[in-house]
């Protein structure tokens, strides 16, 4: 027995049967169906449970406003919670299950909540669950959490891929209903670059669901022709399954295209694409959304929006019921009765809240109750009958409700727009300041008749053209008969004793709104927050206005005086995966590789992330099973003979110009103006607030040419800062900067045999003897027979050391050459760990010390800050708190018991004092095991440290349950006189 | 001061349910402003309402008005990611936030309103050795100040959050700093609970009352001009977060504050999958799951001065990238709502609770995007300052003159640029 | 947002890095008697207007120009964009012009 409620007609491809499952049951539908229409065709009314009371829920709408029919789509890692059946295109093999019930859908254990509903009124949880105190987290909250939520994530990584891209156009038309098609036609025919997008998989909007005619054809035939005409235009891009979800600054619109959601498998194509559309004009043709009327037990499966009932019948040939009643406050509701009657569906009754005569002919056999009210309904898992205020009970298995139509103003509110109330249609229309370049046409602007919609779209298409300097064509708008659109506002049936739902998903009823008013939550935002109205996945698209009307009634004010509801992006929910695109896993951020990366990989190096860079951390040799073995060896070998380390990641800035020296003198805190050509100087850079920003070296290659190095971490920031100084502070200086970090491969060559090794590769015409090229010398040389190189005699390790830079393309061969030439010296490559050990042994500050909170004085370099010149940071570095007598200073630490291991992050407490914050004297910033000394060593900041050498304090580390005694020592653990580096 | 309002309890809820909920009263009154008050608090956000509550309850000052230009709780207390924690590093901050945490822990019984304080733990992840060292330093500082902290290694993190990306991450997770007492609180309820507690003790909460000017003569502030007329006050206490510069400019003051927009996000409701709060150390992303099931998450501020309560797409994308890098299982969860709040970003990332150079004018602000967790302590310490004219012992560093003295409280070490904090 | 770069035309704001109030281009004189106070006000105090705001943006993913952008902080509308260098030089010219009178 399949498709028991399927009738003839509609826009289906009946040659393509599609099998799908719902809660494990195999069902059948046709291409062109949505999951909702297929479920209805198969006679399925109940598809889910509500959020709070776990009431049975059926299909309510035929679009993205659906509050009820949310299902779990697909399975395994592809499982997709809270998917609206009403916009899910049917495909062969679709799997769907219902959500939010324990036990079966029909017999949900959690439905017990409904029995206690009077205890679970709006905001009840704020007033209870407070005693005993510990019970909230241990008992009440876990129960509430488990009951709340709707669908379920799989917990597995999302296996699909998502793309992001940009689109540019003159005119973006959002919505391809009658107004959107008209607007796109007029703009497209004149040659403007047009994008027309629609969330549906079939363009045409309401024309697909109505029996109205356009230009003497059926509406959907006209739409099909219009789409064909637009498709033939090179300047028009049509995008179905694409939702404009947000309007952002300066005419940028966010849109989501669902590329493969309608297929059983994405087949390695992106599942969705996030588009950022840069447009000069946006014509919003988003149509309108029907809203319900609230009355007793108006939430049962089978109670639907009247327009949706008609859409299922007209577009999908699916009957929501066999005996249909209509409840309306407007003429449009009658159309459902008429359309269904034409299809031979039994119309049991039309109840119109308005007095007077029926606006159209009454379908055969239908009872008509003008001025009527439905006060209650019956039917546990689906509607069986309705009760009118006069006590009359009418059997029906589907109730079509229309409370009028609300323009879809959402995108107009995403910036500063505030909708305004139009009494004649009892609805908010776009108002206030619309997003840049946005115009609104058709039903979205409050024009509810088809003929006006067609004309409006056409006119605004032409308006966009003339704004942008295009000449409109002489074509006129499509024509349609004028239909009747009368409405008289009617929001809820006061006579109803039973609960009357406003927000169907979150279970907010008329009583909840009244209680909210009674308790003082009267501002619209208070109402929403207190009752959770409009906070569900449908964002209250069908609920907000009726609820506002109930609140207005309570306050005795008009609806616009009571408030407006505004909307934030997104228009419909957007998958987080789509907003992230490809930036996940290893592609989360770009990877920067050093010039020696391939070589290091060949050596089996272990790499570490340093910002975007990957750097070799250490180079394990055969037989080394623990990282410490490798690192100790690298340090020992370097200090004994020679080591090579890739330091390309240090920022390099080329500085040229007549004023280059003076410029450096201003950005560095220490003096640079008189640095001789051929010399390098260590420099410290302050922020304007006097705190250390960075340290590094600058080498003077010529009178007007310097090369600066910065730390790896601050390379980008220092360059930005220097450009700020150059362009914004001293624009008259003749100085130019360029970042050359990626243009040069740079290696440190360190150790007693460093010179001997370099002499093997530096071309012989360059004298690099100690006399000719002393400590802190620099020069341009050539290597390996003419390759240009820059050589610096600088040392981070404390050894006789050089840094040599060659154009990046030679980096790989340089490291191979160095390592080959160094074989006779037992050269070692060393990584960042050994680099770190050696700099700690030497007492050099690095990232852990230059943490943006420390001053030059803290680092023991206070005297370097020149007071005789203007430089960034020197004025504010003089503030009292930065020059306290009891300020911090950077010193060395060693464990009193040499076998103890120091821990970075420990805090220093004087002996005999308790371990609490008031006695906190500083912290250990960097530690290492020194293979040279045979014990753990550390650098750290402690109050007045430089005056306390030899003192023993406690290094307390409660978070690792440790505490040891440490001795304050000089930070220069190795070669304090600096003899090695001058050798 | 005695509480004269309605007492909430499970019993009361049951009784009302059985009698048609007719006995519930407005949670706060709607009074007309009096001509004069002892203290006028400008700003009916979380901090302003908490200040009024503690002034009345702890310091016996009840001739107090809270003036709110819109509806109470419409600022950042109504639009944040609900996180509470006291995992700070610096001595100027940590005791204050730990004081706040202790107030959170007893808040609901104190003000008889269930704000759903849920101490499900906050975990800050690190991805390298330097990160571990910095968190060890911070964790130790927290413990020295009497707070709780646990340093987790990778396995420890994996046990709590198996669904993070441990296998394929660009920046592998190496461990995390956990504060088990951290967690979340139902944000709106905080504003309502304080409002109810203050109102029941006699404080006038006046909504739709915008301050349009300050009454200042000879260096003394004696009241405010408002959209509902002039209101005199012995003390005027400004507490307006993102609007700080606007309001204080009425007193001719320039502040070390910029207003920036911070976006926040919530997904559709989902069955429980995240037990606590997680912050990503290698991207801008933090997340928790609300009792209703939504993933509540956020990231970096948009980065430009703004008074618009909305942001732009690049940050939305950046935050979701962080989310997918950290936990690729959320790809199929849908973002339901995003919104923006205006943050009073200070020059060192830390707040101010201080007197101004104008007698009778007090200022509380500069909370950056961390104001929510501070609400109870901010209210208490501001009330202390207003009542006693001296700072509370845990808030002695929050002075407006600290930049003149070089006494910055710069947790992140970013310097005098608000959008970096 | 889109910033209309004076040299490169309209560019997406995500190519830029924001610094803050354009008054940061007016660095005080380090030798003034009240230099400490001037530098404090310069570095720490802000007008922070709700409305038109002149501010510094750096085209980091572009030509590395620093720009002075006039943008409304309530609406985000941008009404003027100029090279910071030009803005500084214009200010200097104006100052020295006044000085001569």
TrEMBL record, chain A:
GCVT N-terminal domain segment(s): 597-869
Q: Name one GO molecular function term.
A: sarcosine oxidase activity
Sequence ranges assigned to domain Aminomethyltransferase C-terminal in this UniProt record: 890-975
**Could you tell me which NCBIfam families the record lists for this protein?**
soxA
Q: Where is the SoxA A3 domain?
A: 498-582
Q: A Pfam family name for this chain?
A: GCV_T
Please indicate if the UniProt record lists Transmembrane as a keyword. no
Keywords (A to Z) from UniProt: Oxidoreductase
Q: Which family does it belong to?
A: Belongs to the GcvT family.
Fetch the Gene3D superfamilies from UniProt. Answer: 2Fe-2S iron-sulphur cluster binding domain, sarcosine oxidase, alpha subunit, N-terminal domain, FAD/NAD(P)-binding domain, Probable tRNA modification gtpase trme, domain 1
* Example GO BP: tetrahydrofolate metabolic process
Designated name of the protein: Sarcosine oxidase subunit alpha
Q: Which organism is it from?
A: Kiloniella spongiae
UniProtKB/TrEMBL annotation, chain B:
Gene3D superfamilies per the UniProt record, alphabetical = D-Amino Acid Oxidase, subunit A, domain 2 (3.30.9.10), FAD/NAD(P)-binding domain (3.50.50.60)
Rhodanese domain segment(s): 39-83
Q: Which family does it belong to?
A: Belongs to the SoxB family.
| Organism the protein comes from | Kiloniella spongiae
Q: Which InterPro entries match?
A: FAD-dep_OxRdtase (IPR006076), FAD/NAD-bd_sf (IPR036188), Rhodanese-like_dom (IPR001763), SoxB (IPR006278)
Xref: Pfam families: DAO
EC top class, in one word?
oxidoreductase
Q: Which GO terms describe its cellular component?
A: cytoplasm
Q: What is this protein called?
A: Sarcosine oxidase subunit beta
- Enzyme Commission number(s): 1.5.3.24
TrEMBL record, chain C:
List the InterPro entries hit by this protein, alphabetically: SoxD (IPR006279), SoxD_sf (IPR038561)
Give this protein's Gene Ontology molecular function annotations: sarcosine oxidase activity
The record ties this protein, via Gene3D superfamilies, to: Folate-binding superfamily
Q: Where are the transmembrane segments?
A: none
Origin superkingdom: Bacteria
Which Pfam families has this protein been placed in? SoxD
One GO BP on record is:
tetrahydrofolate metabolic process
Q: What is this protein called?
A: Sarcosine oxidase subunit delta
The record lists the organism as Kiloniella spongiae
The top of its lineage is: Bacteria, Pseudomonadati, Pseudomonadota, Alphaproteobacteria, Rhodospirillales
């Amino acid at each position: 027995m399949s498709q028991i409620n399927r009738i003839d007609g509609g826009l289906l491809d009946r040659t393509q049967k599609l099998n799908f499952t719902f809660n494990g049951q195999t069902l059948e539908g046709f291409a062109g169906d949505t999951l909702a229409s297929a479920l209805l065709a198969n006679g399925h009314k109940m598809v889910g449970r509500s959020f709070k009371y776990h009431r049975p829920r059926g299909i309510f709408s035929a679009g993205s406003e659906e509050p009820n029919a949310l299902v779990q789509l697909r399975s395994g890692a592809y499982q997709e919670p809270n998917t609206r059946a009403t916009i899910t295109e049917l495909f062969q093999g679709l799997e769907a299950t219902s959500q939010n019930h324990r036990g079966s859908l029909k017999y949900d254990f959690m439905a017990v909540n409904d029995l206690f509903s009077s205890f679970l009124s709006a905001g009840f949880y704020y007033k209870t669950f407070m005693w005993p105190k510990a019970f909230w987290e241990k008992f009440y909250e876990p129960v509430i959490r488990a009951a709340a939520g709707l669908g379920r994530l799989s917990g597995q990584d999302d296996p699909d891929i998502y793309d992001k891209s940009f689109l540019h156009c003159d005119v973006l038309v959002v919505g391809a209903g009658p107004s959107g098609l008209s607007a796109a036609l007029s703009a497209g025919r004149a040659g403007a670059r047009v994008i027309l997008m629609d969330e549906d998989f079939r363009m045409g909007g309401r024309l697909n669901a109505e029996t109205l005619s356009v230009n003497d054809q059926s509406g959907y035939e006209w739409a099909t022709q219009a789409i064909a005409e637009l498709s033939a235009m090179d300047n028009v891009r049509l995008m179905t399954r694409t939702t404009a979800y947000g309007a952002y600054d300066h005419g940028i619109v966010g849109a989501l295209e669902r590329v493969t959601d309608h297929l059983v498998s994405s087949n390695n194509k992106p599942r969705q694409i996030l588009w950022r559309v840069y447009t000069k004009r946006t014509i919003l043709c988003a149509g309108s959304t029907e809203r319900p009327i609230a009355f007793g037990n108006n939430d049962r499966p089978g109670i639907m929006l009247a327009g949706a009932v008609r859409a299922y019948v007209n577009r999908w040939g699916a009957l929501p019921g066999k005996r249909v009643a209509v409840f309306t406050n407007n003429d449009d509701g009658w159309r459902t009765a008429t359309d269904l009657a034409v299809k031979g569906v039994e119309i049991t009754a039309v109840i119109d809240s308005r007095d007077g005569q029926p606006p159209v002919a009454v379908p055969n056999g239908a009872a008509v109750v003008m001025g009527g009210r439905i006060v209650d309904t019956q039917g546990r898992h689906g509607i069986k009958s309705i009760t009118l205020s006069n006590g009359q009970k009418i059997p029906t298995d589907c109730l079509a409700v229309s409370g009028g139509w609300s323009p879809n103003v959402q995108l107009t509110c995403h910036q500063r727009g505030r909708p305004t109330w139009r009494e004649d249609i009892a609805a908010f229309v776009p108002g206030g300041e619309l997003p840049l370049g946005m115009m609104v046409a058709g039903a979205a602007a409050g024009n509810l008749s088809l003929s006006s919609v067609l004309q409006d779209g056409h006119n605004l298409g032409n308006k966009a053209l003339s704004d942008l300097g295009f000449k409109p064509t002489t074509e006129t708008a499509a024509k349609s008969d004028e239909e009747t659109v009368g409405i008289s506002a009617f929001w809820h049936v006061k006579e109803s004793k039973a609960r009357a739902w406003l927000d169907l998903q979150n279970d907010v009823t008329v009583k909840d709104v009244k209680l909210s008013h009674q308790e003082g939550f009267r501002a619209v935002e208070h109402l929403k927050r207190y009752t959770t109205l409009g906070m569900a996945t449908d964002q209250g698209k069908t609920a907000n206005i009726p609820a506002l009307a109930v609140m207005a009634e309570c306050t005795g004010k008009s609806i616009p005086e009571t408030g407006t509801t505004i909307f934030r992006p997104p228009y419909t929910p957007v998958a987080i995966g789509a907003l992230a695109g490809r930036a996940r896993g290893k592609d989360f951020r770009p990877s920067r590789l050093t010039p020696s990366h391939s070589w290091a990989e060949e050596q089996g190096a272990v790499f570490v992330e340093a910002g975007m860079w990957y750097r070799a951390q250490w180079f394990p040799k055969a037989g080394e099973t623990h990282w410490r073995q490798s690192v100790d060896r690298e340090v020992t070998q370097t200090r004994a003979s020679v080591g090579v380390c890739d330091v390309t990641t240090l920022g390099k800035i080329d500085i040229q110009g007549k004023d280059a020296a003076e410029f450096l003198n201003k950005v560095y805190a220490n003096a640079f103006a008189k640095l001789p050509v051929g010399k390098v100087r260590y420099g410290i850079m302050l922020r304007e607030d006097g705190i250390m920003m960075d340290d590094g070296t600058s080498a003077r290659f010529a009178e007007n040419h310097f090369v600066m190095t910065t730390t790896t971490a601050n390379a980008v920031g220092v360059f930005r800062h220097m450009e700020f100084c150059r362009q914004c502070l001293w624009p008259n200086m003749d100085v130019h900067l360029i970042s050359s970090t990626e243009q040069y491969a740079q290696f440190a060559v360190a150790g007693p045999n460093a010179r001997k090794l370099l002499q093997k590769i530096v071309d012989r015409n360059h004298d690099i003897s100690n006399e000719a090229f002393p400590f802190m010398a620099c020069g341009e040389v050539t290597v390996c027979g003419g390759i240009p190189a820059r050589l610096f005699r600088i040392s981070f390790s404390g050894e006789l050391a050089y840094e040599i830079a060659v154009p990046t393309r030679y980096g790989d061969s340089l490291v191979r050459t160095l390592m080959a030439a160094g074989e006779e010296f037992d050269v070692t490559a060393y990584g960042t760990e050994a680099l770190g050990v050696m700099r700690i042994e030497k007492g050099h500050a690095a990232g852990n010390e230059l943490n943006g909170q420390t001053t030059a004085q803290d680092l023991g370099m206070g005297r370097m800050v020149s007071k005789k010149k203007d430089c960034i940071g020197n004025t504010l570095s003089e503030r009292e708190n930065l020059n306290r007598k009891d300020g911090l200073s950077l010193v060395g630490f060693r464990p009193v018991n040499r076998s103890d291991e120091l821990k970075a992050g420990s805090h220093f407490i004087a002996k005999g004092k308790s371990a609490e914050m008031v006695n906190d004297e500083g912290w250990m910033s960097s530690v290492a095991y020194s293979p040279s000394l045979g014990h753990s060593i550390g650098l750290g900041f402690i109050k007045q440290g430089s005056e306390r050498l030899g003192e023993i304090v406690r290094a307390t580390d409660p978070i690792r349950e440790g505490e040891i005694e440490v001795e304050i020592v000089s930070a220069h653990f190795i070669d304090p006189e600096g003899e090695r580096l001058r050798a | 001061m005695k509480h004269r309002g309605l007492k909430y309890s499970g019993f009361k809820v049951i009784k009302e349910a059985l009698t048609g909920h007719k006995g519930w009263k407005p949670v706060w009154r709607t009074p007309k402003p009096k001509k004069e008050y002892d203290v006028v608090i400008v700003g009916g956000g979380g901090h302003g309402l908490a200040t009024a509550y503690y002034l009345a309850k702890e310091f016996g000052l009840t001739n107090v008005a809270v003036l709110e230009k819109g509806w109470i709780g419409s600022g950042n207390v109504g639009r944040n990611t609900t996180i509470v924690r006291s995992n700070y590093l610096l001595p100027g901050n940590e005791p204050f936030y730990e004081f706040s945490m202790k107030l959170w822990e007893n808040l609901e019984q104190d003000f008889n309103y269930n704000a759903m304080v849920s101490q499900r733990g906050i975990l800050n992840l690190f991805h390298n050795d330097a990160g571990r060292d910095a968190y060890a330093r911070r964790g130790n500082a927290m413990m020295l100040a009497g707070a709780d902290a646990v340093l987790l290694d990778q396995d420890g993190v994996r046990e709590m959050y198996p669904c993070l990306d441990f296998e394929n991450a660009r920046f592998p997770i190496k461990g995390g700093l956990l504060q088990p007492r951290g967690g979340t609180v139902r944000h709106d309820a905080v504003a309502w609970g304080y409002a109810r507690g203050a109102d029941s003790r006699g404080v006038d909460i006046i909504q739709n009352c915008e301050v349009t000017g300050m009454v200042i003569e000879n260096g003394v502030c004696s009241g405010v001009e408002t959209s509902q007329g002039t209101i005199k006050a012995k003390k005027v206490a400004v507490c307006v977060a993102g609007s700080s510069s606007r309001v204080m400019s009425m007193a001719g003051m320039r502040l070390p504050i910029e207003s920036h927009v911070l976006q926040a996000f919530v997904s559709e409701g989902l069955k429980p999958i995240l037990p606590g709060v997680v912050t990503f150390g290698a991207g801008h992303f933090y997340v928790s799951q609300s009792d209703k099931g939504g993933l509540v998450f956020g990231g970096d501020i948009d980065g430009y001065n703004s008074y618009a309560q909305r942001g732009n797409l690049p940050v939305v994308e950046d935050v979701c990238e962080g989310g997918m890098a950290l936990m690729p299982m959320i790809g199929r969860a849908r973002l339901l709502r995003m919104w923006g709040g205006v943050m009073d970003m200070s020059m060192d990332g830390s707040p101010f609770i201080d007197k101004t150079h104008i007698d009778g004018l007090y200022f509380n602000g500069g909370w950056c995007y961390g104001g929510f967790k501070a609400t109870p302590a901010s209210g208490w310490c501001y009330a202390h300052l207003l009542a006693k004219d001296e700072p509370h012992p845990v808030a002695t560093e929050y002075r407006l003159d600290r930049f003149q003295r070089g006494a910055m409280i710069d947790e992140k070490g970013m310097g005098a640029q608000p959008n970096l904090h | 947002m889109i910033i209309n770069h004076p040299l490169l035309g309209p560019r997406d704001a995500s190519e830029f890095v924001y610094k803050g109030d354009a008054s940061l281009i007016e660095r005080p004189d380090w030798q003034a008697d009240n230099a400490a106070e001037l530098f404090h006000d310069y570095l720490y105090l802000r007008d922070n207007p709700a409305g038109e705001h002149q501010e510094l943006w750096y085209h980091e993913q572009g030509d590395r120009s620093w720009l002075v952008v006039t943008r409304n902080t309530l609406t985000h509308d941008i009404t003027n964009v100029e090279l910071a260098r030009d803005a500084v030089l214009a200010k200097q010219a104006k100052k020295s012009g006044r000085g001569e009178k």
